[in-house]
Design brief:
This protein is an alpha+beta fold. Helix content is 36%, strand content 28%. It has two domains: 29 residues; 95 residues, no CATH class.
């Protein structure tokens, strides 16, 4: 009976380790927000985002934000870069505090026809309500 319990606990621990290693590998190698950060910081492309399913709502501004991708405030994996939609009245500082990073206003009144700015066509990674 003890052997079965010990084997079950060992199998659960091994599964958690494999899942953890898989997550870390995926996040380090394939994180889209980190790939945006690399592309923009190496000056390959000034555009952060010009596609996606999220669009700015009426009254939203788009904020370009750089934030750390962390494991529970213990370990920082890398820096991320993305566009976020939030109320225009919130301001870049409030959005940055919410994300734990640094934000700048990309567009105060975004439109789906915008061809300029780092966050084009009113696309954002997600909506925030600071």
């Amino acid at each position: 009976m003890r052997r079965a319990i010990i084997r079950s606990i060992a199998a659960a621990a091994a599964t958690l380790i494999v899942l953890g290693v898989g997550y870390v590998t995926y996040d380090a190698a394939f994180c889209e927000r980190h790939r945006r950060w690399i592309r923009v910081n190496e000056q390959h492309d000034p555009v952060i985002r010009d596609d996606g399913y999220e669009f700015a709502r009426p009254g939203d501004a788009i904020y370009a934000c750089e934030s750390p991708d962390r494991l529970d405030d213990i370990l920082t994996w890398h820096q991320d870069l993305d566009c976020y939609c939030a109320p225009a009245a919130a301001g870049a500082d409030a959005v940055g505090r919410l994300l734990g990073g640094r934000c700048v206003v990309d567009r105060l009144a975004p439109s789906r026809t915008d061809e300029s700015g780092a966050c084009r066509h009113a696309h954002c990674g997600r909506h925030l309500d600071p």
